[in-house]
Design a protein that fits this description.
mainly alpha, 345 residues
């Protein structure tokens, strides 16, 4: 794998703004409005949840590494920025994406094994006479539409590399890892660099771990922690912009740098005591000490706080959306256009 994300095809070709991504998808739907009108689909987040669940089911059955499952989901997102989903059989795409991701993540699976396992989940989509050839054809289709840009940089590497530097316990890493897993059900892999996503996951893990129950996102209690993190980062962004405006003529600090933003993170923390008076009451909590340490680390970096704000808000919105997900309805709407257009043959 190419070690330098900044020179990667991921950064050069597969990062979009929200407006750019919306325009790409609108353009695909505009190519055949009758097709879109004939087969309405659930909202994109629900489709992503469905894809995530199906890939995880297949991956668990085959004992695949998480890295391969994550890369497969990125391939699916990239592919569907080039091809309208109703023109494909999503089950063929997700199985082929996983097969290709296993090759790239150095845990290759035999194509016949992949086809046999897929047939166990979707027997009408993978018939024994054609399944191997279908995956092979779809593999070339994916590679072509992605312009052979197959290397994917993920947030997991940043998370594990910062564990010691930030003093993260294994429980912190596990929760941040879960947040990273969840972000693949959003558009974030197409919107922000992996290191920004990893740092957002660390922040959310530290905030959520303040809840002694250790509840994961999706509960009312943990959502309040997500909102607190979002508010803190939003304040950091606002204060950075305000200070940059005040110093516009002095040239002392470049606008948007993190040293001006750590105060936003401090807003979510207990006040620190004056020098010489010992720690403030809130700082006796080791959990809060970790959040302070993370805030101090951010203050010495050039991390894009605005991007972290956007990631946090996107995750909050996703967790709220997840509560309305209906697996049966999503599955039926996909199967409807697949069968009606003969894509299961």
């Amino acid at each position: 794998m190419a070690a330098n994300y900044w020179e990667s095809t991921q950064r050069k070709h597969w990062l979009f703004t929200k407006d750019e991504l919306a325009a790409v998808r609108a353009r695909l739907e505009a190519e055949d409005p009758n097709l879109v009108a004939s087969f309405p689909l659930p909202q994109l987040r629900h489709l992503n949840i469905y894809f995530n669940q199906q890939i995880n089911r297949l991956g668990k059955r085959m004992g695949l590494r998480q890295q391969a499952l994550a890369t497969a989901q990125v391939y699916i997102k990239r592919f569907y920025t080039k091809v309208e989903i109703r023109r494909t059989n999503p089950h063929h795409v997700l199985v082929t994406a996983l097969y290709l991701a296993c090759k790239m993540e150095e845990c290759p699976q035999h194509i016949r094994l992949m086809a046999n396992e897929a047939r166990g989940f979707w027997p009408t989509d993978f018939q024994s006479q054609t399944e191997v050839a279908r995956i092979g054809e779809c593999e070339f289709y994916l590679i072509s539409e992605m312009s052979s840009h197959l290397i994917v940089h993920s947030p997991y590497r940043t998370l594990t590399s910062l564990q010691g530097e930030l003093g993260l316990a294994q429980e912190d890493v596990n929760l941040a890892w879960s947040v990273i897993n969840d972000h693949y059900m959003t558009d974030l892999p197409l919107l922000h660099p992996p290191h920004v996503i990893a740092l957002t996951a660390i922040l959310l893990a530290l905030v959520l771990r303040q809840d002694p129950s250790g509840r994961l996102p999706g509960t009312a209690a943990s959502n309040s922690g997500l909102v607190a993190a979002s508010a803190a980062l939003a304040q950091a962004q606002a204060q950075a912009q305000a200070r940059a405006a005040m110093m516009a003529g002095g040239g002392q600090t470049a606008p948007g740098l993190a040293p001006q933003s750590s105060s936003g993170l401090q807003a979510m923390l207990p006040p620190q005591s004056p020098a010489g008076e010992g720690p403030a009451e809130g700082n006796k909590n080791p959990r809060m000490a970790k959040v302070h340490r993370f805030a101090a680390w951010l203050s010495d970096s050039n991390i894009d706080i605005e991007a972290m704000v956007d990631c946090t808000q996107e995750l909050i919105s996703f967790y709220e959306c997840h509560e309305q997900y209906n697996d049966k309805n999503t599955r039926e709407q996909i199967n409807r256009f697949v069968k009606a257009r003969g894509l299961d043959k």
